[in-house]
Write a structure and sequence with these properties.
single chain; about 100 residues; alpha+beta; GMP Synthetase, Chain A, domain 3; three-stranded mixed sheet; 2 helices; about 20% strand; globular
Length: about 100
């Protein structure tokens, strides 16, 4: 029985990730048309890490784009999440003292 209880959060996490990826895929053609892109990185609690690339990196409207993607994800999931842009090739910041 304990295994079933542990499997449920994993399944919910995978479903959540699928919804998030689907929303990003819906928006991606518009971003690419303008020379940018958005990539799903990971989920950490209610935070969804994404990496903006191309023209989106320096675009003055990137915060509005992130807000729009976040609103769409919230609408599809039916729960609050916060979209957090991460920079560079690394998904997570380095822990101090580790290289």
């Amino acid at each position: 029985m304990l295994q079933d209880a542990e499997a449920a959060p994993v399944a919910q996490s995978l479903d959540k990730e699928q919804v998030i990826r689907a929303v990003i895929d819906e928006i991606r053609p518009n971003l690419r048309r303008d020379g940018g892109d958005c990539e799903f990185v990971e989920i950490c609690g209610n935070k969804v890490m994404v990496r903006m690339s191309g023209a989106c990196v320096l675009c003055k409207l990137s915060s509005a784009t992130l807000e729009g993607i976040q609103a769409r994800i919230i609408e599809k999931l039916g729960e609050f999440v916060r979209l957090v842009p991460v920079a560079g090739a690394q998904a997570r910041p380095m822990t101090p003292g580790r290289h």
